[in-house]
Amino acid sequence: MVERQCESFQTQKQTTYIAMSKASLVITMSMVVMGTMVMAFPPNYGEALTKSILFYEGQRSGKLPPSQRMTWRKDSALRDGSDKHMDMVGGYYDAGDNVKFHFPMAFTTTMLAWSVVEFGDLMDSELKNALNAVRWGSDYFLKATKYSPEMIVAQVGDPVLDHDCWERPEDMDTARTTYFITQQKPGSEVSAEIAAALAASSIAFQKIDATYSKTLLDRAYKVFEFANKYRGSYNYSIGEAACPFYCDHNGYQDELIWAASWIYKASKSAYYWDFVKANIQSMGGNIVEFGWDSKYAGINVLVSQWVMADAYNANPFIPNANIFVCSLLPNAPIKSVSYTKGGLMYKPGEQSNIQHPTALSFLSIVYARYMHAAKKQVQCGNEAVDPSRLINLAKTQVDYILGNNPLGMSYMVGYGAKYPEKIHHRGSTMPSVEVYPKHIGCRDGDQYFKSAAPNINILTGALVGGPAQDDSFQDSRYNVGQSEPTTYLNAPFVGVLAYFNKPTIQF
C-alpha cells in the first residue's frame, strides 16, 4: 500500500447554531460568487465539537483507560520502546496506519493545547475531554524526552513494514522500531515541535493542575535547549523512517522560533522573546503557510497577541500576519489559496486538502479575536478587513466541511446524514477484537480493505482528506489522499468548532 507524507488528516465536532445577523447574510451570500451553496439546515457545532474530540480516542496507542468511549478500540502496542529498553507505550497513531510519527503528533498536541488555551472557555462540558486529548499527547512526550539532553525519541514503528500490512493495531506484529535523535544525530524540527507541544500544554493545564503544568514547562526548557544547541534535520538522522512519509521540507528554523514563542508565552522569560526577535528576520520560507511542516503564519499570529499594541516590537509580526490575512481573500491580488466552485479553500497539487481550511480557519479566528480586542482592521489593498470578515470566512469553511457543499456530504465521519463510509483506516475496516478475538495477520486484513461494504467500525469525528478541486469526492479506501483521516487535520478544527459553538464576535 502506498501511503503517506500528506496521507492523512482529521476529524472534528460541533454543536449549537447561532442565527446569522443581516450583515452576516450579506457577507455569506457574497460567497455565492465562488459557488457556495445555501444550507438547508444549520450545522450543529456542539455535536461536531464533541465528535471531533472523540476521534482522538480512536487514535490512541497503548493501555486504554476505563473511561475509553471509542469502545471498539482496545489496548495495543504495549511493548513499544522495549527494543531500546525504554517505556514508549502511549501516544497517538497519526492516521490510518499504526506508526507513531512524533513530528506531526507533536504539532497535533500543540494545536489541541492551543485550542484549549484560546477557546477552552467556550467548550462547556467538552473542556474535560479536550484536556484529556491534550494530556494523552503531553504525557507521551514526557516519556519521549525523558533522556534529554542525551536522546529524544523521534518515532516508534517501522513505517515501510507497517504500510505493507493491513492489520488492526491490536494485532501488530511488524517491527516497532524506536528511532531517536542524539547530539551526534540531531533533529531540531521534531525536538523543537515537541518543546512547543510541552509549553503549550503547560499553559492549558496552568489553572487546573499547576504541578503538572510546571513539569511540562520545565521539560520544554530542556528540550528546546537540545533542539537549539544540536542543530540538524531528522531527515538525515533517522533517514527512511522519516522520509518520504513526514519529511521536513521547510527546515527547522521555523520550529525553533515557534517553540521559543510558546515557551515565552508560558514563562514570560525574556530569553525566549529575545530568541524570537533575533531570529525572526532571518527566517526563510513562505510567511502565509501553516501546518505540521510550516509554522510561519502560526508564529506571527501567536506573537501578535502581545505585540498588537506595541509599535516597537510589532514588526515584522503584525505586517506578516496582515499579509497572511490578505492572502486568504478570494479576490486578493496575492493569494495563498484558491477556492473550489463550492467555496472550499484549496491548494492544488497536495493531498488531504482539508488540512488547509482547518488550520487556516483556526488562525483566522484567533487573529480576528486579537484584532477585535485591539480595535484593529487590516488593510488589503483598497479593502479594509475587519474581524467579522475573517470570522465569516472561517465559517464558510466549517460549514462546507460539515455538509454545505455541492455533494451535501459531511467530511466528518459520523456527523450528518451523509459522510464517508469507506475511509482509509485499518482499525475502522476490521472487526473489533471484542467481536473477533482471533489474530488477524499482516495480509489477512486485505479482504476487509478490498471489501465494497462500508467500514465495520465508525471512527466518529474523524476528518478525511476531503474533496478534489472540482468538489468531487471518491469514498474509497484506495483513494488515500481523499479518504484517510489524520490527527493533525482535526486538531485545529477542535478550536474552530469550539468558537462557533459560542461565537464572541458578531458578523
UniProtKB/TrEMBL annotation:
Enzyme class: hydrolase
Name listed for the protein in its UniProt record: Endoglucanase
Matches recorded under SUPFAM superfamilies: Six-hairpin glycosidases
BP terms from Gene Ontology: cellulose catabolic process
Keyword Transmembrane: yes
Species the sequence originates in: Clitoria ternatea
Pfam families: Glyco_hydro_9
Membrane-spanning ranges: 23-41
Its EC number(s): 3.2.1.4
